[in-house]
Amino acid sequence: MTDLLILPRIEPVDATVTVPGSKSLTNRALLAAALAPGRSTLVGALDAEDTRIMAEALGQIGINADLTDFSRRISLDGGAPAERREPIRLYVGNSGITARFLTAALSFIPGTWELFGKERIYSRPIGDLLAALRPLGARFEPLGAPDALPLRIAGQSLPGGEISVRGNISSQFLSALLMAAPLARGRVVIRVDGELVSRPYVEMTLAVMRSFGATVETPDAQTFVVPDGAAYRPADYAIEPDASAASYFFALPAVAGGTVKVRGLSKRSLQGDVAFADLLAQMGCAVEYESDGIRVTRPVVGGRPAQLVGIDVDMNDISDTVQTLSVVSLFAVTPTRIRNVAHIRGKETDRLAAVAAQLRKFGVRVDEYDEGLQIWPRPLERLTGARIETYDDHRMAMSFALAGLAVPGVVIEKTECTAKTYPRFFDDLSAALGRPAARPV
Question: Do 36 and 232 contact (CB within 8 A), yes or no?
Fold first, then answer.
């Protein structure tokens, strides 16, 4: 395992950055292309552990794909795979999106499918998804704890019908049901019970489905209708840069001073996480939405970087950027309150507990609530270096690396976890800084 000492930044940064393709869009497009009979081409996909896991699982169920130039162009020959007599074991690692999307889709594809992965995936929520699928006739056999992975799926041709799913645990449950619904033999109506967390991810799912020809009707905010015959069609699909990954570079000037532009994103992005830049603007940064990207600058006032102020914000829609904002809040002059993100306790780790524990190592007070955090900053000179535990969570490593650019003595442990979504993160951070961002310890 590689532990890295982050090297503090003395001069303000001035960089233009291109981040890899969106993980969320890549995995949705891979599945849609696999379910569309014919040749599809994906351009600009993210080549990382999570997306490779999805692509390789699709290959195991019988989808032919050329993955030799993954991040530039993927060609897939989609359509219903031939039924297998023997059980097919599919590895999902710790990829929640792969586990949930395949659980739903494979329920409609004849065959016996067994999903297994890393230990953490066995404790990540999936019971609500199984409960939503059972009324259609889907059959599951636990291979461990009930309503959890590892899981055996008795895939079969399923009829349409009306189903419901709770919305407050993970938007991936609804997205998984939506993406699988065109495989049904009839019309599928999905009703969401209660608040839907991370709604922009569902809007992203709908946009990808429509790009591949699948019709979805939304008569109201809680109801989704996939008509009979709403089949996927092959498509050529270009994938946006990853807005969650961009958040680290948007935050870079907020922490280190200067300006950073991230190419290829705009306010019109399919990804809700571009709104993270607006939070930085509320804290005191200048944000410019340009024709070819988004630029974030920490202004200079009287020869010094302008002060950042804390904010009180509901981050339900952009919860993958909670860790990034938490680190930026270390350098504000007033407290920051993050609300309505209880669902991130079920991510790669309990992200609220993990963030609170690691922020406290800098010497700050952090109040942890069931659904959020309040972070009480202190002057920069009173912040202390820290060894940051990453909990095998890629976003812990990448977000807390930013803190080390302003606070000497920050070590990020087990940085291999960034391979999950951004294998070249520390290389790209070094390029943005114009010198090495870290050294092994």
Answer: yes
Domain topology for 23-224: UDP-n-acetylglucosamine1-carboxyvinyl-transferase; Chain (3.65.10)
pTM of the model: 0.95
- Indicate if the pLDDT at residue 7 is higher than 80: yes
Establish whether domains 4-21+240-440 and 23-224 are of one fold: yes
Q: What is the pLDDT of residue 272?
A: 95
320 belongs to the catalytic site: yes
Please state, in angstroms and rounded to a whole number, the distance separating the CA atoms of residues 100 and 92.
10
| Residue 38 near residue 112, CB atoms below 8 Å | no
- Express each pLDDT in 281-329 by its tens digit: 999 999 999 999 999 999 998 888 999 999 999 999 999 999 999 999 9
Give the span between the Cα atoms of 202 and 197, in whole angstroms. 9
What is d(CA 372, CA 191) in angstroms, rounded to the nearest whole number? 27
Catalytic residue among 47, 50, 242, 320: 320
Pairing state of beta strands 236-238 and 38-43? parallel
Architecture of domain 4-21+240-440: Alpha-beta prism (3.65)
CA distances to 12, 123, 284, 307 from 300, rounded to whole Å, are: 10, 47, 11, 9
